[in-house]
Write a structure and sequence with these properties.
about 0% strand; mainly alpha; globular; about 110 residues; 5 helices
């Protein structure tokens, strides 16, 4: 269950979770939608899950989403280069990201 009384950005994950729970085609991934902003170090939201308390799919999504967000243009900033994004992901392994998932992700990025 989400943490009650939270405000933006917490509400966005909860809104997505509620929509998915009530949509038969998405119900099985509702938990992933809710938890995809959790952090390996426990400082994420909405539940403050830590480490392996976070579903594996969410830990994978966190790294992939961060890389995509950094390397894509946004209305508020331009994309950063591949090297800069990789360096940022490495810096946050063990903090924001699962270090094992990060390691695999970086290996996949470097494979031909």
């Amino acid at each position: 269950m989400p943490v009650a009384g939270r405000t933006f950005p917490f509400c966005c994950a909860e809104i997505g979770w509620r929509i998915a729970q009530n949509t038969p085609e998405l119900a099985n991934i509702a938990e992933y939608i809710l938890c995809h902003h959790e952090r390996w170090d426990g400082r994420g939201y909405p539940r403050g899950l830590k480490g392996e308390e976070i579903p594996l799919a969410c830990r994978i999504l966190a790294v992939a989403d961060a890389y995509d967000a950094m390397t894509s243009d946004r209305p508020y900033r331009g994309a950063v280069g591949r090297r800069e994004a990789i360096a940022e992901i490495k810096r946050n392994a063990g903090k924001q990201f699962d270090p094992a998932v990060t390691d695999i992700f970086l290996k996949l990025l470097s494979s031909p």
